[in-house]
Write a structure and sequence with these properties.
alpha/beta; 390 residues; 11 helices; single chain; 4-stranded mixed β-sheet
Length: 390
Amino acid sequence: MALLAEGTTEILNPTYCDDAEAALAVAEALGSTVSRSEALTRIAAGKNPAAALLNCGESGLCLRMFAAIAGLYPAPMTLTGIGSLLKRPVSFIEKPLVALGAEVRTSGGYLPVHLRGPLRGGVTEVDCSISSQFLSGLLIALPTCELDSALLVKDLKSRPYVALTLEMLAKSGIQIGRDASFEQFSIPGRQSYAAGRINIEGDWSGASLFLVAGAIAGRVEVHNLNPQSTQADLAILDALVMAGARVRMQDESVTVEHDRLRAFEFDASDCPDLFPPLVALAVNCEGTTKIYGAGRLEFKESNRAATLAEEFGRLGIKIAVDQDRMTIEGGRSLGGQVFSHNDHRIAMALAVAALAGKQGLELEDEICVRKSFPSFFTDLDSLAGKTEPV
């Protein structure tokens, strides 16, 4: 949004993880001037792309959003990435972008993506069965187009993330209409983004790991969490309560304390990133936990459902996946050697689950946490034997 605004936008409370750096690099390639400091990121908008190659790193969000935004420019662009992103399908972006005025060619439904704009707006259908992130990219790009647009959304998953996108668009001065079911969006063209100061909320995805750590191994207090957030992963609080953990929220802090934990049922279809911490929680619950929405996990950094079953299986935990349902038999992990599969959320969940295990574990390729949470292991280590909040 800062890339498309007039003037300079300041983003407060940034985290310079690998995914964030990938997005900033693409913004620079598209003509923005970016300056970084610990407290804030400044993005001065630019009109002319500085490069034709947009490297999205290993970030699916970066790729899917910027595929739409790069389509605004008349110059030919190529989007590419590294690692697991090269194996993630992108065919669902082709028809909508073509219908809206761009030329698009993928490599058999995978990266690299070659495209040329400009998008003019119009009417198209968007398949969101794999991800809602491309829809968010269209919602960001289309308000600046010459024509008005209408999007017909099919099989939407992760609705809270689309709501979060709309919330941020409204703060940036953009008007978008929608129906109650999030199946139809009307987007007036020729709108302008307002530059300003944006404060990034505390991240419920990252916090969920520490909240689960408190539930299974002691007590944790986490600050800077908005209890009214539209972030999907706020739902971790519901799972913790169902599991029997002691949960207390005051202002913008959450305290979670260990108690006798019991199996629970939870639908994670709208918050699939919670699957790894939910499994870490379920492992330490008495009985068999059922988590729904496992079909959302195939096209992540790894096939996350299969990876969770495989790696927790190494620790003596029985996990079964039956279509959209995952069942986890509770029982303390036995310890051993496990592998992250270069998946940041798998690495963090295994580490948290080990806190209550008998022998701990040896984790390979733990450096992958840099993708979203570079300080994870330092922060986790700081909790050992401590009682003060984090």
